[in-house]
Batch of 3 targets.
Target 1
Amino acid sequence: MATGPMFLTGANAKIVINSKLIAYAADVSYNVDAVTVPVEVMGRYEVLSNETVAFGVNGSFTVVRYAKDMAKNAGIDDANETGNAADNLGVGSHINPAKMLESSTFELNVFQKYKEIEDVNSTGGGTKTSLVGIFRIEECRIVRRVGSLSKRGVLMETYAFVGILGGDMKEDGSGLSISNSI
């Protein structure tokens, strides 16, 4: 039996890049665009049709930055002990001119975390936390990194990305419910 919220919220969402959970992810946003162009003909004022010519995905995610050992000292699970700078997130080579040519794309996944109460009669009871795949963006590249720090705030870094294909994940979490055109 599942418990918890019925809707995906920031409190129960997990952002994963290349199978690596991103600790302190504050938000994620994405746009999936089908680019269309109008087909016009001589002698007709209105457009004959709108035809799709491209498909694109872009978006951003924000993390609350922390330094080496800060999360470990605070006893926070899911955090990398070496901090969450761009290199530790696995995207540092995308925005480092010396490493751009050797960088590779990544997958960005959004999961919903929920707790499942096990049946006392069959398993002895207890709770189990599970992740359900919601959205996946494939072959992403970082195109921008923006930081913001206010006097009474925390350092927030926003990473903008572009991707090749994005859509809802299959129910079993194995891949996308959409596919390439070829």
Note: Helices lie at 70-74, 86-89, 120-123.
Target 2
Amino acid sequence: MSKNHNKPHFIAMSGSYGCIPDNVVAFEKRTNAIKHIIDIFELPVYGRKADHLRKTGYVDLGGDFGADYAEIVRCTCENIEIHNDEVA
């Protein structure tokens, strides 16, 4: 019996605490997901928030950027397209 090996992909999401994320985009590479979050929130590329995002996959935005948090989640589902309308 063969195991189903799905290619990992990375979901960049952000939103308000306690709510369903209002921004969800899937990427084939983690680095692209990180760049997406840095770009949409205009975070300083080498600032503390961007560094924390790169290290942990999560950043507390504190509501200062139009969202409370942003995070990147690794997923291995069969269909990357279910996470968003276009794959980046």
Note: Strands lie at 9-15, 23-27, 58-60, 69-75.
Target 3
Amino acid sequence: MIVTTPQMIHYVEDVGRYNNELIDYTKLIKFSEFKLDNPYDLAIDIIDDNPELPSFLKKEFKIQTWKSWAEHVYVGEVTAVDVYAAIFEMFESNNHRYFSNLNYEERLEIHKFLYETVAEEKKHSNLVEYMFEKCNYNFHKITKDAAYEKLIQDEVNENNLLRTMFYYNMGECEILTTLSLIIRHTVNEDKKNYLKMLLQEESKHFNGFTKVMRLIRKNITKEEITPLELGPNGPYFYKMVYHPEYLGTMNIPRFFNYCKENLLQSDPQNQNIVQKFWKSIESNQFQQEHYSLFNRKFYMYYNILFPDVSADEYNRNLKTILNSFVNSFQWEPRE
């Protein structure tokens, strides 16, 4: 049980005051425009130009990429508030063996981190919702009804806690990666400053959850870890969920379905279109930076669970899975 100290009271007051000050951030982008194919005014593109690819499809790829990323961020930020609050409650009640065998300083550090993270995610959900409304995405607001409450309970329980922590920190890493690159390449100072605070706190969240995993690793069994293993034949978790290594691969099946619906069999540009698009993604500077940064950072987290897996082995296995993922697309354009 954590005893409330004067330092913790001061800390809680700081969080509340900081949240109130962040209202001013919305003023930064109040009059900003967000183009569908380049909402953050990047100086570089997110896919290489290829004259063999239809220009309308290249534009559609960019539109769908940014929208699917925004939807991923929006859903992640909103649900993270309650997922992290449930983890915090489980931790506070000492209701999971993962949080046993911790000394007072370790418990106080985790307490402070989780409390602050819940407050920050609430703030993030409001700020990204405002920004995505400016993008005209019009996402349906998540209703916190009985079904939503069941979702949170299913995510945070005795059996799913490791999977949930792994999945959500993967999301933290992906958001951190993309925000870093947007800030690096945007020419819009207002948007850059709006996103900088999000970047700083997402970095703190990723690093904080990585430290939490180091602290609780000794309480996790081999059987619990195995389903998260990366390998060409393994049941690695994000193999079954989404591929965040390149920006746009989270919903690339939807994009290729769009291609099929908008290209005729007689159109010569449909020849090898999956391979052409994939090559234009892989060779792109932004995408290469994304791939390198995401995998370098997430390997730090992965390696806590699988210390015997080298970075080279991790990347080789990842490439195998990605190649299999791309090769799985069957190309049948409309007649």
Note: The mean pLDDT is 88.
